[in-house]
UniProtKB/TrEMBL annotation:
The keyword DNA damage does not apply. The chain crosses the membrane at residues 6-24. It comes from Planctobacterium marinum. The gene is phoR. PANTHER family: PHOSPHATE REGULON SENSOR PROTEIN PHOR. GO terms for molecular function: ATP binding; phosphoprotein phosphatase activity; phosphorelay sensor kinase activity. This is Phosphate regulon sensor protein PhoR. One of its GO terms (cellular component) is plasma membrane.
Length: 434
């Protein structure tokens, strides 16, 4: 910026001012008084401009400077120019910080910025979901006061960050996170947490899949091969036996198909890499579709089914997985509740969480079975499961879907009174309408 200020002009003006004062003092024969009055006037003028400057800097809401001439005009213009330049710099810096935060929010890993004493200075959205941090409530709090796993605390205090550590997620013990600490800048650290659950479980899932398939398919295949051998060896069987054989073989074939489909669904869920926070699921709409299917399944059962749904409550998640979890619990209640029972399906806010419940007045489940219900192929009553076509995989699918969404299945049941299957989603996963 060109500065037109000239010291020569400024000194010349002062000299002319005092010269005029001396001329007037000489004319009235009061030279000293004239110089004193001129000096006092000059001090008062400068003090007046200092007061104006103070009011403009501290009290005025105007960005533009006050009007003034001479050296004070140049001072006002200089300060105005500096303020404008600083505002431009602050705006550019603000845009840079905003772009940095937007980029950090899109990272596929949880990221936390720490100072030299491990106080939290910033964290991205995935850190709030995966590590259970609250922003900005947790700002300036020590990370080891929020993540208290002994291995993590030891990792911090050793200050040897060459190798990462693997520990359970603070929000979900069934998931494994890899933590890395990277120093940067002046005494700052970037903590990165990556979900490696799928990597460590892929091989185990494959082995379990093969073992489960071989175990569960053995019975229907034995039935099929037995009937086929009998028909081959004795082609002149009575028609009633042939009809029974074909009916049984058809039933076993359907069972095998259902079993394979559910095993594939379970395998897809366990190996899923979809991130739950990327898409919003319209749960009320999903439940409306399931309600239609439930009423069709209920034709022969005659249950009274009531849906109580908060139409405005949506969440982040994987729609296909959540649909599977909702439908499995609802269809189980229909299949295993004696005819003419009552079933209630609820979806709504409970405190600051989103909760789903299926309540029935069926036979109930003995307490010793509750802890094992989500195991693959576990059945309370195997005979009844075969009669209803159950595979023993439904609740296992529900368990893995909820694990993927940082939730877990809660089961309350009293024999002869009925059962309640429910789960809740944390407030971080609730989609807020803008």
């Amino acid at each position: 910026m060109y500065n037109p200020f000239s010291w020569v002009k400024s000194i010349t003006r002062i000299a002319l001012f005092y010269g005029l004062a001396m001329l007037v003092g000489w004319y009235f024969d009061a030279l000293l008084w004239a110089l004193a009055i001129a000096s006092t006037a000059l001090v008062l003028i400068n003090y007046y401009h200092l007061v104006k400057l103070n009011n403009w800097l501290w009290h005025s809401k105007k960005f533009t400077p006050p009007d003034a001439s001479g050296i004070w005009g140049y001072i006002y213009d200089g300060i105005y120019y500096m303020q404008r330049r600083n505002r431009i710099k602050r705006k550019k810096l603000g845009n840079l910080i905003r772009r940095f935060r937007e980029g950090s929010e899109s990272l596929p890993d949880a990221a936390v910025v720490l100072d030299a004493d491990w106080h939290i200075e910033w964290c991205n959205r995935l850190a709030r979901i995966e590590l259970g941090l609250n922003w900005p409530e947790d700002a300036e709090r020590r990370i080891d006061n929020l993540i208290r796993h002994p291995e993590f605390v030891k990792f911090l205090r050793n200050r040897n960050y060459d190798s990462p550590i693997e520990i359970e997620s603070p929000t979900n013990i069934s998931r494994v996170l890899e933590f890395r600490m990277m120093p940067y800048g002046e005494k700052h650290y970037l903590l990165i947490a990556r979900d490696i659950t799928q990597i460590s479980h892929v091989e185990q899932v494959r082995k379990d899949f093969v073992a489960n398939v071989s175990h569960e398919l053995r019975t229907p295949l034995t039935v099929l091969s037995g009937y086929l051998e009998m028909l081959k060896e004795s082609p002149e069987m009575p028609q009633s036996f042939i009809d029974k054989a074909f009916d049984e073989m058809g039933t076993q074939s359907t069972r095998m198909q259902s079993l394979v489909e559910q095993l594939l669904a379970l395998s897809r869920i366990e190996a899923s890499t979809e991130r739950v926070y990327e898409k919003v699921v319209n749960v009320p709409q999903v439940l409306r579709t399931i309600e239609i299917e439930a009423q069709s399944l209920n034709k022969n059962k005659g249950h009274s089914i009531e849906f109580e749904v908060d139409e405005g409550l949506q969440i982040y998640g994987v729609e296909t997985e959540l649909r599977s979890a909702f439908s499995n619990l609802i269809f189980n209640a229909i299949n295993y509740t004696p005819n003419g029972g009552k079933i209630k399906v609820c979806w709504g806010k409970e405190q600051d969480r989103a909760r789903f419940k299926v309540i029935d007045n069926g036979e109930g489940i003995p307490e010793e079975h509750l802890s094992r219900l989500t195991e693959r192929f576990y059945r309370v009553d195997k005979a009844r499961s075969r009669k209803t076509g159950g595979t023993g995989l439904g609740l296992s699918i529900v368990k893995h879907v909820l694990s993927h969404h940082n939730s877990k299945l809660e089961i309350n049941s009293d024999v002869g009174q009925g059962s309640e299957f429910s789960f809740a989603f944390a407030k971080q996963i609730i989609a807020i309408k803008e």
